[in-house]
## 1
Amino acid sequence: MKPQTHYIPTAAERYPLALLAGLMDFVLIVAGSYVAHWLRFNDWFMLDHYLVATLVVAVVLVSCQMMLGTYLSWRGRHLWGQLGRMFVGWLLALAVVASIAVLLKVAENYSRIWLVSTLAVTLAFVTVFRVSVFLFLRHLRLHGHNLKQVLVVEMENAAAPLRGIFDELPEQGYKVACFMPLGHDEEWYENLRRQVAACGVHEVWLCLPLNQGEAIKCVMYALRHQTVDVRYLPDLGDLPLLNHRISNIGGLYALDISRSPMEGPSRIVKRLEDLVLGALITVLMLPVCAAIAIAIKATSKGPVIFKQYRMGINGRRFKVYKFRSMEVHEEGSGQLTQAHFGDPRITRLGAFLRRTSLDELPQFYNVLQGRMSIVGPRPHALAHNEHYKDMVESYMQRHKVKPGITGWAQVNGFRGETDTLDKMEKRVQHDLWYIDNWSLWLDLKIIALTVWKGFLNAQP
């Protein structure tokens, strides 16, 4: 058995590049406003009402860019298309700013020359910045850096369009690690899993005819334990699609069939939510945590904090923290017995902590670390993952997002002991629904429901 490694999230996982792009836009907009002020008044000092207007313009512009998705990854997208979307965002922001000025009747308090100059200068700054970043990334990728490794599953001539742009893919941010002709026996599927692991593949592209729906299902089932992104690349250039998510990679259409919704601006919102609410709750709960720690130490022998490895985002392991609610005991290698009603291992204080969910409070430290979220699928013990991943369909897909302290399954009653397969299936169904329908408002609703009815429960 391989030793368990301590998972430390990368900077890109804690603070995605989209966040840096938004912050850079904000800085450039403020800088452009000061330059415009100097050009108009020959003075760098800005009066308070001009400074407020600058901040409002910056917030509106960045918000409009987030709404239009210009902070999403540019990988596989053309520069001019992304710049065009950015310019649309600026026009939308201009309309919003003008509406605010008219509604508040403050337009006469500002120089129109300064406002127009601000928009022109900042647009120039941001455009130069975007083009520079694009050219820099292009240079890196052409020299073999910042590339996503891709495994292509092909059948007959379905991958011919992809082979036609094979030499252009590195410029788009992708590199094909290998091509695999489609097979149908178990040995081929086992070889597919080995190739995904051996090549360090980030994505699997399925270049298959439209009549190979069953083959797509089989490939998805074979990769059910993997957290790689899966794309289907049929020839869909002239086929109109409704209510589907389509990506464009080098001019080719890719139908995303296994992707997490939490990327780009969504990841920024999710991380900010965790940092702000996590820090606030941590500060408020410190006296309670101190009292619980003293009580645990006074009533039973052993450590105050219970640590256990769990599986986090993209299958990476991390240590989860809980207040110890059981007597210290040993279990056999690979064994993990779930707590149950009347479990003699649970202390009297531990029973109260588990019933009120107060034993979960140390996990807010995991949230601030960036290894968990406040809301998300509950992390299961590693032994439970191994047990259920072959029994529950799409079980491992719940690891495409960070695990949470509470979740949609928990506020709907699927918490605590999962002593039957049906309970685990229902929990996974709720977790996958949450991932597919995530929004900030859904998170806030789950947090409110947790406070309202989730802390007190009848679970062991």
Note: The CA atoms of residues 77 and 251 lie 8 Å apart.
## 2
Amino acid sequence: MFVIRRCTADDAPTMVDIVNQAAEAYRGVIPADRWHEPYMPLAELHHESAAGVIFWGVQEADKLVGIMGIQAVRDVDLIRHAYVAPDHQGSGIGAALIGHILSLHTSRPILVGTWADAGWAIRFYERHGFRLVSPERKASLLQTYWNIPDRQVETSVVLELERSR
């Protein structure tokens, strides 16, 4: 059994470990010029938190095993840094996290960006109601709501949550 809770500053070292372990799936999938070691340094996590990313985590048996962030940017919410420890992947933790975040954030559009060649990530978001936006709209959204280099814009996709009207 697991518990979903808001992450704290004390969780930062474990959060970075989860991100860096899970990000190994991207090695060789994303362009080599976008890969770096570690994938997320602790300073970057602190920067993301200071920029308003609120992290939620799944704790199982007193151990954090998955995280997902949400960030309000202008008139949308962005799903940020969604990772599950490799030994817990496929157990429903990602689904529980996204379900929790979506239950809290219902009034604004929700976007998520990921690597274009990360088919597993795209399929995960599609299973949860997100749909890929057009390439033209993708570039505009990435340049408006994210602060990423042009090379990352080229090699990424954006998915938007389709909500019932």
Note: The chain is about 35% helix and 30% strand.
